[in-house]
Design brief:
This protein has about 350 residues and is α/β, with parallel strands linked by helices. About 35% of the residues lie in helices and about 25% in strands. The protein has two domains: about 10-125, Rossmann fold (3-Layer(aba) Sandwich); about 130-285 and about 315-335, Dihydrodipicolinate Reductase, domain 2, CATH 3.30.360.10. The chain contains ten helices and 15 strands. It has a nine-stranded mixed β-sheet with strand order 14-13-12-11-7-10-9-8-15. The model has no long low-confidence stretch (mean pLDDT about 90).
Length: about 350
């Protein structure tokens, strides 16, 4: 887990699903003697006081009430539409910021946040945690090393039951962006991180509103390398899970969390290596959010780049936005073209 840091004080903003995930990860790090101190939780909802009580820290109903004097890092894990106001307020106060993905719902909003952080001279990390899931990281490393040859086809799925948030904000695409932004953004980031620039995207979405709403989206992305990727984001399932297949000229990498958390490597006939082997994850298995937050604090203390940069986070938002534009128009969208 690395050397012990000097004490780093964290203010957590948001106590919904991701706020609790982050809060519990910070608490585990503190228990391990990593020099973390959670100052308190900011959230106007009853969940804020509950999470603060569970973490044995202070609770404030509004940002204005929270003392910032000894805060080193503001962790913004509130609903997506509020990210901008909290990131910009934290930057103006001179605090380093961690913002849960997506950084914003649009490229313009994300670039405004990035500019505010740059003017303030503080650092901004974005929570693209899939880079810290062992199967995804190991697959990325194997592709980058050329272990399965050039990859021609990628198929990725991420989905589960419809998420419940404060006042059902996920159901409102104007607030959540729907599955393409809130869910498939993880897979878009993985693809961009691993395969480079996209060329075109075509997407379709379906919504079935009601007491138990269903949302489903499918996007086909052609990359400049020639890779064809199929990305499915689903809030129409019953339990959360992920799958991917990366098809290369020399083999195939497959992961299915519904079966297990391993990564399977299948070699093609004629390739002088074992076929159908389990590829161990790189390094010790740990909670991905623990790994992510540890890496972010390490980067702050060591003054080194974050695993996911702000431009990379914006690139993922751009691709998700272009997919939404395609779904709305029914047409193929050229990536990076003026809209």
């Amino acid at each position: 887990m690395g050397a012990r840091w000097p004490t780093v004080s964290v203010l957590l903003v948001g106590a919904g699903t991701m706020g609790r995930v982050h809060g519990e990860a910070w608490a585990r790090m503190q228990e391990r003697g990593r020099g973390i101190r959670v100052v308190g939780v900011v959230d106007p909802d009853i969940n804020g006081s509950r999470l603060a009580a569970d973490l044995n820290v202070s609770h404030w109903a509004s940002w204005e009430d929270a003392p910032l004097g000894d805060v080193d890092v503001v962790d913004v894990a509130s609903p997506t539409p509020t990210h901008g106001e909290y990131v910009e307020a934290a930057a103006a106060a001179g605090k380093a910021v961690l913002c849960e993905k997506p950084l914003a719902l649009t490229v313009d909003a994300a670039e405004t946040m990035a500019a505010a952080v740059s003017r303030a001279g503080v650092r901004l990390a974005v929570g693209h945690v899939v880079r810290f899931f062992p199967a995804y990281r190991r697959a990325h490393d194997l592709v980058m090393s050329g272990d399965i040859g050039p990859v021609a086809v990628a198929r990725l799925y991420r989905g589960g039951a419809f998420p419940r948030g404060h006042r059902d904000w996920y159901q409102d695409r104007a607030q959540s962006g729907g599955p393409l932004v809130d869910l498939s953004l993880h897979d878009f980031d993985f693809l961009l991180w691993t395969f480079g620039a996209p060329a075109t995207v075509f997407a379709q979405e379906i919504d079935l509103p009601g007491p138990s709403p269903l949302m489903y989206a499918a996007a086909t992305v052609r990359f400049e390398s020639g890779l064809l990727a199929e990305v499915v984001g689903s809030w129409a399932g019953t339990r959360f899970g992920t799958r991917f297949e990366l098809v290369g000229t020399d083999g195939l990498l497959a992961h299915d969390s519904f079966r297990d958390e391993t990564l399977m490597l299948s070699r093609r006939q004629g390739v002088d290596r074992p076929r159908n082997v389990v590829v161990p994850s790189a390094g010790p298995v740990d909670n991905p959010w623990d790994l992510e937050l540890t890496d972010i604090v390490d980067a702050l203390v060591q003054d080194r780049p974050f695993e996911a940069s702000v431009p990379e986070a914006i690139a993922a938002i751009r691709l998700a936005t272009e997919a939404r534009q395609s779904a709305a128009s029914g047409r193929v969208v050229t990536c990076g073209a003026p809209q």
